Amino acid sequence: MFLIVAQGNPGPQYAHTKHNVGFWVLDRLSSGFRPKANALLAPFSVGEVSGWLMKPSTFYNATGQAVAPFARYHKIPLERILVIHDELDLPPGRLRFKGGGSNAGNYGLESISTHLGSKAFHRLRIGIGKPPSPEEGAGWVLSGFRPELAPVMAQVIEAAAEGVKVWAVEGLDAAQKRFNGIDFRDAASAGM
What we know:
It is found in: Cytoplasm. Monomer. It comes from Meiothermus granaticius NBRC 107808. The active site is at 19 (proton acceptor). The mean pLDDT is 94. Helices cover 36% and strands 22% of the residues. The protein is of the alpha/beta class. The protein has helices at residues 21-29, 64-73, 107-116, 137-141, 150-170, 172-179, 184-189, and strands at 2-6, 34-36, 39-46, 49-56, 81-87, 95-99, 122-127. The protein has seven helices and seven strands; from the N terminus they run βαβββαββαβαααα. α1 packs across α5 (150-170). The protein is globular, with a radius of gyration of 15 Å. The longest helix is centred in the last third of the chain and has 21 residues, at 150-170. It has one domain: Peptidyl-tRNA hydrolase (Rossmann fold, 3-Layer(aba) Sandwich), CATH 3.40.50.
């Protein structure tokens, strides 16, 4: 069994913000989310493997409050947990699968690490680029993408949804090899 968690903030005022790109990916995979405890959950199967999609109803920085109890109850191992989140250190148009490692100042990942007692879960990082200055970080993640990036982000979200399926069936290495090197800005400029 696997658990795929999207970081984001609940409520319509946050739906189109950069912080919620993880929710966008899960919305490509299912429309059957139902409320349970601190999250919206949907069962999800790919091939012969099955698990859960989770959109925590806690705020972004408290994601661990939803993830850890669910993972423990269902005895989901860390290497079968994938957290999808926005990433300032990647430009829009890039995504990257990663196994464990630093939380790099992401308070949502820190919450998950603290509540699980480990950083060994997997991540799918979706690039949103850096704000014009560090002081503008909060406003940056809580704003939307520029309109000209809409086609690029649509391709990224579609690829991320496909990547989630690859990760669930074939594992982290296969997902990294297939998706980490793609730059969808190049594809967009080539008219793809």
